Amino acid sequence: MRVIFSGGGTGGHIYPALALLQRLQERDLLDEVLYIGTEKGLESRIIRQKNIPFEAIELQGFKRSLSLDNLKTVRLFLQSTHRAKRIVRDFKPDVVVGTGGYVSSAVLFAAAQLHVPTVINEQNSVAGITNRFLGRFVDRISIAFPEVAAQFPKQKVVLTGNPRAQQVAGMQANQRLTDFHLQPEVPTLLIFGGSRGAERINAAFLAALPELNKKDYQVLFVSGQVHYAKIQKALANKTVNKNIAVEPYINDMPTILPDVAVILGRAGATSLAEITALGIPSILVPSPYVTNNHQTKNAESLVNHQAAEMITEEQLTGQSLLKVADRLMQDQKLRQTMSEQARQLGVPDAADRLIKVMQDLIH
Ligand SMILES: CC(=O)N[C@H]1[C@@H](OP(=O)(O)OP(=O)(O)OC[C@H]2O[C@@H](n3ccc(=O)[nH]c3=O)[C@H](O)[C@@H]2O)O[C@H](CO)[C@@H](O)[C@@H]1O
Predict the structure, then answer these.
(1) DSSP labels for 186-238?
(2) β pairing state of 188-192 and 262-265
(3) Which ligand 1 atom sits nearest the alpha carbon of residue 124?
(4) Rg of the chain over CA atoms, in angstroms?
(5) Count of CA atoms in the C-beta half-sphere (13 A) of 223
(6) How far apart are CA 10 and CA 146, in angstroms?
(7) Where does the Glycosyltransferase family 28 N-terminal domain start and stop, copy by copy (predicted)?
């Protein structure tokens, strides 16, 4: 089939599209693909790096408060819808898939107006602004959390899970930690604040570092690309022992995850799909800066199932990080239980379920 993907801004909206694309290729179902994103979003780097045909359109998100900038948003939306229609007409896709982020609003809206079959994937337990808008126009809405169904027209909703889950579910431990000078056989705590990094998580890591240096476990700390220079500066006059590795970004996260004992990070939906697909115990620090506090709701679904611990951003300090990290890193039995609980929430065939939705639409 010929497929246009659109989604972006942050990794949580890009990796599900990439995972679906990879699965379509594995099953020899993909004839041609085009990805439509923005230059500003992480997709322009991530998609181009993978040599996937990429077209950029210009768009921006709505400000939640009343603002003149919203007039520009509307103008850009109209212009980019016009442009997206041209791209869709030229490419002639069998189906257009949206994975969230404001760029997909214009692309999916344009495709729906042209009567091309459309599907969106909502990864979160609370629908994003873009997907809530698109829900009215697209043909199918694929969801990962049952509770989000109520926010969409009922007859369009299908529970598929997040396609990224299937991509990571099959991954085996492969010793890639040695790339970061860490030892594969030593339990490793991965600390990262979503695809863009999180300042408060970074600050807590820096505060905890003197103690983390002394641990018999390892830490792989990922700062986020934009925070890396600042972190390096802060680390310049500090001791960083051999059990600690510091990176700006991990390009191929699925190859690292099977070797990780515990994750401390945000509660972005795509991270959670990975955590549950692999059964990784986690300490979740939901971002309070997202629409309707959806990361807290995402996190609660794991916490209520004894699969994860949660600390609020306010509670997060070097001390609280150490306390909860030690508890999990020093108790293999607890990790085992959390791992089993997490895995029960995973959807290891999510990509195939979503492909079925696409096939049913086309035929
Ligand atoms: C601030 C914001 O709007 N966050 C949203 C965004 O988060 P964000 O983009 O941070 O998304 P997630 O935490 O869901 O996913 C991050 C993705 O990036 C990958 N990764 C991360 C770091 C790294 O170094 N390398 C790497 O590959 C992870 O493996 C994962 O696949 O999209 C999610 C999915 O809709 C939402 O739930 C989040 O609320």
Answers:
(1) S-EEEEE-TTT--HHHHHHHHHHHHHHTT-SSEEEEE--GGGHHHHHHHHTTS
(2) parallel
(3) 37
(4) 20
(5) 20
(6) 23
(7) 3-141
Residue with tokens 């240096």: 213
Does 130 sit in the ligand 1 pocket, CB within 6 Å?
A: no
Q: Which tokens go with 218?
A: 């390892």
Judge if the beta carbon of residue 222 lies within 6 A of ligand 1.
yes
| DSSP secondary structure string for all residues of 131-173 | HHHHTTTSSEEEESSGGGGGGS-GGGEEE---HHHHHHHT---
Using one digit for the tens of pLDDT, what is the confidence trace for 180-210? 999 999 999 999 999 999 999 999 999 999 9
Show the DSSP H helices in the chain as ranges: 11-26, 43-49, 69-91, 103-113, 129-134, 163-169, 199-212, 228-235, 253-256, 269-278, 294-303, 318-329, 332-344, 350-362
Ligand 1 site, residue 133, Cβ cutoff 6 A: no
Which DSSP symbol is given to 293? G
Task: Count how many Cα atoms sit within 13 Å of the Cα of residue 189 in the half-sphere of its side chain.
Answer: 29
Query: Which positions ≥6 away from 90 have C-beta within 8 Å?
Result: none
Give the tokens for residue 214.
């002394």
Amino acid occupying residue 337? T
ipTM above 0.85, yes or no: yes
Report all structural domains of the chain as residue ranges with CATH numbers, in order of start: 2-167+348-362 (3.40.50.2000), 176-345 (3.40.50.2000)
CA 87 to chain centre: 26
Mutate to test the pocket of ligand 1, among 42, 143, 195 (most ligand atoms within 8 A of CB): 195
Our answer on whether the CB atom of 10 is closer than 6 Å to any ligand 1 atom is yes
> Could you tell which of 18, 200, 220, 270 is best to mutate to test the pocket of ligand 1, judged by most ligand atoms within 8 Å of the CB?
270
Give the Cα separation of 236 and 45 in Å (integer): 28
Ligand 1 pocket, residue 276 CB under 6 Å: no
Nearest-CA neighbor of 301 among 272, 337, 336? 272
Name the DSSP class of 313: T
Q: CB count, 10 Å around CB of 302?
A: 23
